[in-house]
Write a structure and sequence with these properties.
single chain; 0% helix; 6-stranded antiparallel sheet; disordered N terminus; 270 residues; mainly beta
């Protein structure tokens, strides 16, 4: 029986991506002592003459694959660095000074309640009308309607953010907040073949809001998650979210000191 293979992460060698703006990620796979491994560059790079213009050293996520009940299952091995001329020989990434932080605040608050609609109009794309219901979202594109249910979530007061998520996905991303018991869950939807689908995570970074972590959208469309550093009150590990195809991934921005009680909210690298 042929094993099924998940859409992400792909087992492929060479460039792969949406090729929007001519940038892609470098992928690779290989066999080592009878085991299957694969990798994907953390960052995207320019595609020049069907080859990726890679730097001498770059970071890559690595997976080891095993067969479980007839399906290939990936086990994430970390994000080491590799050299362009030796992409299958990982080593710890050298410590580098971090650049300036992106704009983290203010957080977007304007949203559409159940029964409300958003109209998205982008150059080169058909007009899209999105209507929020109490148990799901209905999207209409060129007269074609599709529906995405919230599934088994116990949804309380869902809200569709008006601000579009500007994180690289073709056609844009929609973010919905759904209250679940004492926490707030978030569902990020991307467009696939003219219909909305929930973006699938490729990392274990929390997505939503609870006692120790929170996800938020800024007014300019950037999406972040922060998690409290144990033993502190104002130090947080912060990640920035990006989207590729129908998946979402998080980039670690490091530890940030955030004064959530100040107005406006103040923050800086710790």
């Amino acid at each position: 029986m042929q094993a099924s293979q998940p859409f992400r992460p792909p087992i492929q060698a060479g460039p792969l991506g949406t090729m929007v703006d001519g940038v892609v990620r470098q992928h690779d796979w290989w066999l080592e002592r009878g085991r299957l491994f694969s990798s994907r560059s953390v960052d995207s790079f320019p595609l020049v003459s069907q080859s990726v213009d890679l730097p001498d050293v770059y970071a890559a996520v690595r997976w080891r694959w095993t067969m479980v009940d007839g399906a290939m299952v990936p086990d994430r091995l970390g994000r080491p660095c590799v050299r362009r001329d030796a992409p299958r020989e990982p080593f710890p990434c050298p410590a580098q000074p971090r650049g300036p932080l992106p704009v983290l605040f203010p957080a977007a608050t304007s949203g559409v309640p159940p029964g409300g609609s958003l109209i998205r109009q982008r150059s080169g794309h058909p007009t899209r009308t999105i209507t929020l219901g109490k148990d799901g979202i209905v999207a209409e594109v060129d007269g074609r309607r599709s529906r995405v249910d919230f599934g088994q979530l116990l949804v309380i007061e869902p809200r569709l953010f008006r601000a579009p998520v500007e994180t690289g996905a073709r056609g844009g991303v929609l973010l919905t907040m759904v209250g679940v018991a004492d926490a707030a869950g978030y569902i990020a939807y991307v467009w696939s073949d003219g219909a909305l689908v929930a973006a699938r995570p490729v990392s274990d970074v929390p997505f939503g809001s609870s006692f120790s972590f929170a996800t938020w959208l800024t007014n300019d469309g950037s999406l972040f998650t922060r998690k409290t550093v144990r033993g502190t009150e104002d130090q947080f590990r912060v990640w920035a979210w990006s989207f590729e195809g129908t998946t979402r991934d998080a980039t670690d921005l490091g530890v940030v000191c955030i004064d959530l009680d100040s107005e406006p909210i103040a923050y800086h690298r710790c």
